[in-house]
Amino acid sequence: MSVFTSGGFWAFVGVVAGIYTILALGIQLQFGFTGLLNFGQVAFMAIGAYTMAILVVKEGWSMWLAAPLGVAAATAASLLLGLSSLRLRADYFAIVTIAFSEIVRYVATNENALTGGSQGTIALGEVGKAAQYNDQWERFQARVQGWLHVSSSDVAMLVIVWSVAVVLLALVWLAVRTPWGRVLRAIREDEDAAASLGKNVFAYKLQVLALGSAFGGIAGLFYAWQFSFFSPADFQPLLTFFAWMIVILGGLGRVWSVPVGSLVFGFLFAGTRFLDFAPLSYLDSAERAYLRLIVIGLVIIGLVLLRPQGILGRREEMVLE
Amino acid sequence: MSVALAVEEAVRAFGGVRALDGATLEVEPGSITGLIGPNGAGKSTLFNCVSGFLRPQSGRVLLDGRRIDRRSAHRIARAGLVRTFQTPRVLARMTVLENLLLAAPRHPGERLGRALAGRSREREARARAGELLELVQLDGHASALAGTLSGGQRKLLDLVRALMAEPRILLLDEPIAGVSPALRVELLAHILGLRERERITLLIAEHDLDFVMRACDRVIVMNDGRVIAQGTPEEVRRDAKVVDAYLGAKHQ
Fold first, then answer.
1. pLDDT tens digits for range B187-211
2. Of B90, B103, B112, the CB nearest to A175
3. Residue ranges per domain, chain B?
4. Kind and range of the H or E element at B59?
5. Element of type H or E holding B61
6. pLDDT per residue as tens digits for the range A201-235
7. CA A312 to CA A317: how far, in whole Å?
8. Which CATH superfamily groups domain B5-89+165-251?
9. Which residue is closest to A321 within chain B, CA to CA?
10. How close is the nearest chain B Cα to the Cα of A135, in Å?
11. Model pTM?
12. How many cross-chain Cβ pairs, A to B, lie less than 8 Å apart?
């Protein structure tokens, strides 16, 4: 029990919520504001993380160069996906995105020479030698820890992740308030109407897809740094749907609902560890870990029944057509 | 330049049905041209082909003498040909004012880089939007969500939103269908006023013959995907082919 009440545990929960915030912000921009159904967000996370790790381990690049390139690779992949598939109707595009994310995961699993295969990044280097891509990041994190005078490296990570998350949230918040954001919402409402008024719907969708994927890439970097190791199994489609749950929990079409949704989701997810009283204590801890999915499922069902607009959404927008 | 819009031998089939079967017509600049014909005559398909929402399978569409039949819808709108839809496509979860502002042409704030750099022309756009809302007496609803408007108000919003896009030629698809008689008179006045004040060329598809005969100075009649008659309302009214199309050939 002591581990759960320590600051370190909650800092860890907060870090994960911060990473989810960045990931889900992409979904919010794409779906909440533009109506674009992306069920493959986890792919861009994987591409960002793998690009960074491969460049550092195999090519000996500085992490500070490899990281932006990871984001660039995620963005470039989304452009390829968008150019080929964005003209499809919304639901067909959604199918393409989930297929794309599975292709990325399968490639990562099977291209042993490139990605380390199912063993993950530990097998990136030479045979028999555990590969590390994290040295430079850990030095940076230690320096931040020194500046902040905190004892836990998780707290340092918490500050770094949430600083980046808040900057991205603020940028999106500003952007959707401009006439640019107005065009996005018009596309969400009725893309034919937007086109009839001279708006290049395809170009806006492509832009939004690329931006959201860049956020996915950034989330992937932080995921890689936080866990110091990852494998293709970390990028299951379930992670994409966690991001979707966060957006639905928080409320669609609102920027600040994303961190709220992430925190609620993160704490529900971690909090189910405390359900160790009778009769739940008859279940072992691994079985209890599955309870959190049930709890989150129930919360979402309850929310859809009682508050379909999410925690911060506007009710009146739900009833209009 | 004597023709604002020309359609030449346009063909568009859906499966075995040739919705447009060699339609040819011309719209004179500054005119109010009515487009009539029985249900299924091809009026809506023609509108879609002209405005870029469908591509004609053969034939040409010319705007001010330039071919536009291969252009996408947004480029045709930017070139000055704007359309409305049969059922008004208001953006329900955006305010009435936002609906109008969206239509402002060449708005620098719609580019992400410039928008974040604060380069926008919102003030101009807002002033123009305010004038247009006043024109159709929707100014009291400016900050209401467009989804809360009545059917007739939506028609008006749709009309002024199209005007906000500063068209040189405006295509109205059944502008008075479903509009109350009192509002019809008002809409007619607005439409007549448009040509006077804004020098906009109008092409109006409408079922209400009485409205077309009163509002339009030229009328084009379609049937089975072709243009069967065009001329002044008086000429068209007397055309035997038109009478046949509406009443069936048997009445003779």
1. 888 888 888 887 899 999 998 888 8
2. B112
3. 5-89+165-251, 91-148
4. strand B58-63
5. strand B58-63
6. 999 999 999 999 999 999 999 999 999 999 999 99
7. 12
8. P-loop containing nucleotide triphosphate hydrolases (3.40.50.300)
9. B92
10. 36
11. 0.92
12. 105
